[in-house]
Amino acid sequence: MCSPDRAAMWLRQCAAGQGGRPISDLIRRVPRETPSSRSTQAERLWGVTRLNVVACSHFQTPSFRIGLDMDFFRIQGGRRLAGRISIEGSKNAALPLMAAALLTDQPITLRNVPCLSDISNMGRLLKELGVDMSGECGTVRLTSMDENQVHARYDIVRTMRASICCLGPMLARRKRAVIAMPGGCAFGSRPVDLHLRGMQALGAKVELNGGDIVVSAQRLKGNTVFLGGPFGSTVLGTANVMSAATLAQGRTIIECAACEPEIVDLANLLNAMGAKIRGAGSPRLIIDGVDELGGAEHTVMSDRIVAGTYAVAAAITNGDVILDDFPYDSLLAAIDRLNEIGVHVERLNVSEDVTEGMERCSVRVTSERQLKPTTITTQPHPGFPTDLQAQFMTLLCLAQGNSIITEKIYPERFMHVAELSRMGAKLYRQGPTVMVIGGTPLRGAPVMASDLRASASMVLAGLAAEGETIVSRIYHLDRGYTRMEEVLNLLGAKIERFRPEADEAKRIENAMSGAE
User: Fold this and answer.
1) Residues contacting residue 96 through CB under 8 Å, at least 6 positions apart
2) Quick one: which of 48, 58, 150, 493 has the fewest CB in 10 Å?
3) What is the model's pTM?
């Protein structure tokens, strides 16, 4: 049996793709049991107490077993993308908007809701919480019917982190909320302590019972709430406290509030329901509580991460793509980096007032033949979004020169590094920073999707690679992109979704393990 520190080193090598050995070798050498200690380096890094199963979703089993019930992508690389597509509604905006139905007994109608597994899971959760829901995507109508249901069970909550955004609305309206600790993508610790501190500041009692968060209050009272954390403000925490404060007695001021466009979208819906919220999109929110909220209709904003992903897809294939419903105003930092790299994002049909229509417009994405390196640092909005870090890393693998990417939001969000390295990328990680040595062609290989945005980066790499790329565990991808393979195929890509037969699954498994 090896020491926890030695195990932590192997885990780091695995995450960074170091050592020149098949990743499976590193995983298999992690001990099935390691002496338990809250202070071990391995636990601080990965948030686990036992290392027999690594806390990354794409390393759920040490031996890389391929499930026959999983969908795969088979991607034929080297095809130039061209055409026109529309950007779907934002998942990260839609989930808190759906949870806002818990704040009223009147109907909430949402339009432009994307067809995603996370949306379906949120619908299941809301139905268990007594909400009647018609429609699962496109136009969705939600009406809270049974306000006695207050328990968000682990079976559903574990599938998506955004389920925590039911906490504030349910507490404010139903005076009690019991929510299992949330799940979601596994790329580092994302605690909910700021959510709970916000509820306590509004007068709620917070307890932990058997893995459930139990929060209660007869009537919330307005207060000043500071939501800054070690890596910036919390988006879902801001959504939770803002939603709860709409029905609190008196005025609530949220300092260091998240400035993300999804918070602005939620504030717009809440105000349409009768809330009094000022300052959305700035670090200070002012909420004057009201006695009750009513129904409303609302159109979900376009998904800025999906838009950024498809812009990179056009660039990485030297394509020519028009993207409709593009949230230009929400992607200024990403567009700035694209311009630096040599990718042109041109707004179409611009009026005399250049600021008009920036929230939803049409753009044409083209790229220069030779991409240039750049430096990227992820930051809270309006800085460069962490959810586009993996996609841009893939793009920079093709740039002529060395690029530097620093992850300031989730310093461990680099599980895609090992998989890109399998495809020939030259990546060197030191802590929260990765150096990308560009200019080397990517080669098709079997790779595993590890989380939602890393999954997208694997697909992008497959589009640009020579030969065939197999991407497994694409259920991650289905959480945030509506049938991505169909959208990209419309632009000229050649991507097949399939479930392998036993023999093919074994061949892929052997390839992942370095046996072939």
Assistant:
1) 162, 165, 236, 239, 243, 262, 266
2) 48
3) 0.84
